[in-house]
């Protein structure tokens, strides 16, 4: 038996015992040194004990290059796939691992590509988000792939049944400061399953595939939860309460615009924009300071959606408008609204009036692009809060859910990058 098989067999042995005997020392022998936080992965595997009901048997083991898929059967007869990827070079350590339910018959799960935009749109439009007493559909037709391009190390997984797209889920890596420490966070979001294919294990399968990609790269994971999303609340019922963020919705038709001059931005001003952003958000949870290089990289990922021409600035403030639209449709009779998003904003203390001018100008610009509502996200205590809320027509609350890290200070402002939402 070669080293690769030995490592996989070692993991299978522990899986059969629901990872009961997998010690820290043994896992560190098996895991690749490239893992960002190998002990976090050990905690995840130990958490799989609540899924696997013993005794557990091994049905099949399949290899494809350096990736093995082991079919496990638990005492209830439920079938699971344990996926282990081995490094291609000696010492052949484990570079990723995931566990998910076995796909139902006719189900294919794979990473999405830029050619899957239409399939992802079909899934989103057919998967209403259930809320208190109703539902909503978020239509991002034409820009779904662009949104993922704005994220770091993004992965989108899509499921097909008999060739028809039925579910998707995504994730990405975000560098941020958490409790004063540089942290690499895995963001989980954009999960959708067509109603006829729910409760078949497909969502669990997709999350396992996303986790298999993200877990070696991150210290912790988080997501942004709408407290009105009934199904997600049930799925996260065991998570500890987290601080709240908010989304202020500005009615673009109701915003009065005066004429004070504001500047559009060019790449030559990137040092000033980075300074404004960093000084405005330096105390915010989840903020990752910009360098000139990282800011320029962000603004050249999808330049037709979010380039330098999408920013407005004054000497002491700035606002950046995403060049796309979302259509939010509600079942409560309020109809469909076209919504735009502010991705970046900054204002130095004492210059809130300048910031208000920029927000008003941005809303006016959005209206000219066919956008009815402007979305700005943040939390209590964040820069410009009073101005943002004074222009808003309503506030939507969201809960920040995280695993394997604690919030030292629930009163600390939270930075929410809407590129990830």
Give a verbal description of the structure.
- This protein is of the alpha+beta class and 421 residues long.
- Helix content is 26%, strand content 33%.
- The protein is built from eleven helices and 19 strands.
- The chain has helices at residues 3-16, 24-30, 38-47, 117-125, 144-149, 202-214, 230-235, 270-281, 292-298, 352-368, 385-391, and strands at 57-64, 67-73, 79-86, 94-101, 107-111, 129-131, 134-139, 152-161, 164-178, 181-193, 220-225, 244-251, 263-264, 311-313, 317-321, 326-330, 335-347, 373-378, 394-403.
- The strands form two sheets. It has a 15-stranded mixed beta sheet that branches. It has a four-stranded antiparallel beta sheet with strand order 1-2-3-4.
- The protein is globular and about 70 Å long.
- The N and C termini lie far apart (46 Å).
Which key features would you list for this structure?
single chain, 421 residues, alpha+beta, 4-stranded antiparallel β-sheet, 11 helices, 33% strand, globular
What's the number of extended β-strand segments? 19
Computed over alpha carbons, the radius of gyration is 23 Å
- The assigned structural class equals alpha+beta
Strand content: 25-35%
Number of helices: 11
- Biggest β-sheet: count, sense, barrel? 15 strands, mixed
Low-confidence runs of at least 5 consecutive residues: 236-241
Measure the end-to-end span: 46 Å
Task: Provide mean pLDDT, rounded.
Answer: 89
Q: What would the principal axes of the Cα set say about the shape?
A: globular
Helical content (DSSP H or I, runs of 4+)? 25-40%
**What is the H/E order?**
HHHEEEEEHEEHEEEHEHEEHHEEEEHEHE
């Amino acid at each position: 038996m070669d080293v690769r098989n030995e490592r996989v067999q070692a993991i299978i042995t522990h899986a059969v015992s629901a990872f009961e005997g997998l010690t820290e020392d043994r896992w560190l022998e098996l895991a690749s040194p490239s893992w960002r936080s190998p002990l976090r992965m050990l905690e995840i595997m130990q958490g799989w004990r609540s899924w696997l009901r013993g005794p557990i048997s091994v049905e099949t083991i399949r290899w494809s290059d350096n990736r093995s898929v082991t079919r496990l059967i638990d005492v209830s007869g439920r079938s699971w796939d344990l996926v282990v990827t081995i490094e291609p070079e000696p010492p052949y350590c484990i570079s990723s691992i995931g566990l998910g339910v076995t796909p139902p018959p006719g189900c294919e799960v794979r990473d999405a590509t830029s050619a899957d935009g239409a399939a992802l749109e079909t899934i989103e439009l057919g998967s209403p988000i259930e809320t208190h007493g109703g539902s909503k559909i978020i239509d991002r037709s034409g820009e779904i792939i662009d949104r993922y391009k704005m994220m770091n190390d993004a992965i989108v997984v899509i499921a097909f049944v008999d060739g028809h797209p039925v579910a998707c889920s995504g994730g990405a890596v975000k560098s941020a400061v958490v409790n004063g420490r540089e942290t690499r966070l895995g963001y989980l979001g954009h999960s959708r399953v067509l109603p006829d294919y729910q409760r078949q294990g497909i969502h669990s399968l997709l999350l396992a595939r996303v986790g298999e990609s993200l877990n070696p790269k991150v210290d912790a994971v988080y997501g942004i939860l709408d407290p009105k999303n009934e199904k997600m609340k049930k799925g996260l019922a065991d998570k500890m309460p987290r601080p709240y963020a908010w989304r202020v919705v500005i009615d673009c038709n109701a915003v009065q615009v005066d004429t004070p001059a504001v500047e559009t931005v060019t790449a030559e001003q990137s040092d000033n924009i980075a300074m404004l952003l960093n000084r405005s958000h330096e105390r915010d949870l989840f903020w990752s300071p910009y360098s000139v290089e990282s800011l320029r990289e962000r603004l050249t990922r999808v330049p037709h959606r979010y380039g330098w021409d999408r920013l407005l600035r004054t000497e002491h403030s700035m606002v950046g408008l995403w060049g796309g639209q979302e259509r939010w449709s509600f079942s409560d009779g309020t109809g469909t609204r076209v919504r735009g998003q502010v991705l970046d904003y900054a204002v130095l203390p004492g210059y809130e009036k300048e910031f208000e001018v920029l927000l008003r100008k941005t809303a006016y610009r959005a209206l000219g692009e066919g956008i009815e509502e402007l979305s700005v996200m943040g939390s209590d205590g964040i820069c410009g809060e009073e101005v943002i809320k004074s222009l808003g027509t309503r506030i939507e609350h969201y809960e920040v859910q995280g695993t394997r890290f604690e919030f030292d200070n629930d009163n600390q402002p939270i930075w929410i990058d809407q590129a990830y939402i």
